Amino acid sequence: MKKLSILVIILFVNLCLTAQEKEPESNGETPKAETFESSQSLTMNGKTYGIKAVTGTHLLRDENDEPIAQFGFTHYFLPSAKKRPIIFAFNGGPLSASFWLHFGILGPKRIVVNDPGYTGPAPYEVVKNEYSVLDKADLVMIDPVGVGFSRPVGKAKWEDFWGVDQDIRSIGLFIEQFLIGSEKMNAPKYLLGESYGTFRNAGLVKYLQDKGIAMNGVIMVSAVFELQHLLFGPGDDTAYLIHFPTYAATAWYHNKIPSKNPNLEAFLTEVRTFTEEQYAPALLKGDQLTTAEKQAIAGQLAMYSGLTADFWMKADLRVTNQEYFQELLRDQGETVGRLDSRFTGINEDMLGQYAQTDPQSDAISPPYIAAFKKYLYDDLGVRKDWTYTTTAGSREGFKWDWKHRGNIQWNAQVAVSTLPDMTTAMNRNPNLKILILNGYYDLATVFYGVEHSINHMGLKPELKKNIIMKYYEAGHMMYTHEPSMVKFKADVDAFIDETSN
């Protein structure tokens, strides 16, 4: 059996963090919400937009109107356009603040990074964002409780927010209260999430719909709906199969494919066919596969992946993503990125089985964090004695509750999946449309895993047409890659135009 990578556990499920949660400090009084207003401008296609920005906290109430959290957000809007669409956006984690999307592609300004390499030291370049969504819609960037400025108040505890269902509930409450307060309940409405934010979206769209708040559309950036797809669990071959086309795309990019097809999409069509018709049946046989059959499959895996047939034989035809990061460029002393496999970094353990770090994360995190915080405190005018928390993993005792009521059978949880929620929402609302944006070089939430999920929803053909798939020659955060930014903007604009009228 292959052991799970410690890095994967930390980044995706945080199952190793088992300390007791600390309750937020309180003096017995519920602090008041506080917001800060500023004016931003943006010129797109020759037209200048005067945008009002409000950032700070909303006093979140539970179903009985008891205060439960100071909920952090940033709202961009045109004051004179009440009927404009509104997008609620967030990142993933769990649990990450929304500054990645905010300062990477959606807001009025963006950070410029050296894609696909390491960005130089400060001062970092920040520019007006010609790819923003603000010419099409108002925007609310959401920071769930535990990140940004969001924290429990009153009798609430961290554990009331840190879990699959708890997270969906609190964000759903915020969206409903915000729509009422901003007089946007009758405007076209959208959810936009990245990574775990797409897993959240699949549950949230049903939660809101059940409360009478139907979305016009949901935008999924680097999607995952079934978390078992991210984990190479014992006895489960699915993760090995769905990761393989991204291994092949990575080898194609790094010129590890002999006589490679110059057309990436045509190459990946061939890889999908091999995966479905030869690799999957081979894994299904388990130890009933003959030595000759196994060697034949190993040779084909080697041809598509850039790894040797001998390596595939030693791995019993099953290579985890962490092993792939470490092995592909080992002879060059490098490892490839998990979030974006175009990025490479120094291999810190040439004898190691698993990669020590993620070069893409190393390359872009410092500029994103530093430049966004300068923007937050200087441009948006937030109080400088407020601490903006970028990840809940930095909080002592952070632990995520992975139980989801939609996954319980025989009083036991059989999966970690919000795909059934999305299926139900689409079946009960045939007007709901889903836009899914996939990076070919994303080894965190792989594109073939999304395809597998969509193909197993059991939707009627006319409903399945409501799911629109778009692909990018970049990774998890495809918006670090400027050609993909152009495509991202065009794809999202077309989706809003189609679904808001």
From TrEMBL:
The keyword Nucleotide-binding does not apply. SUPFAM superfamilies: alpha/beta-Hydrolases. Coiled coil: none annotated. GO terms for molecular function: carboxypeptidase activity. Keywords: Carboxypeptidase, Hydrolase, Protease, Signal. The keyword Hydrolase applies. This is Carboxypeptidase.
